[in-house]
Give the backbone structure.
Amino acid sequence: MFVKDELQKLGLNHASVDLGMVEILDDINEEQMELFGMNLMKGGLELLDNKKQILVEKIKNVIVEMVHYTDEIPNVNDSDYISEKLGYDYTYLSNTFSEVKGTT
């Protein structure tokens, strides 16, 4: 709800707001992006603009999904599920995660 409110304050229309992801329908200028980022920080959130950081957040979101919806996930190896869900080789995902977070 917080993220939706901040988008609304800036007059930005959005298609979706999910865990770690916002799809904005409008063109967003640099000033709006900066304001949005500062407003998110006030709420304890962070605006990511680095592709590797974004991928790491997606990895974390898939893991959260796996933990909370275990019954709905096919009985496959965790690394295979993460790789299939994100469309990347698991080695690449693991290396990217380690690079960004400094840990595996």
Summary: The CA atoms of residues 63 and 69 lie 10 Å apart. The radius of gyration is 16 Å.
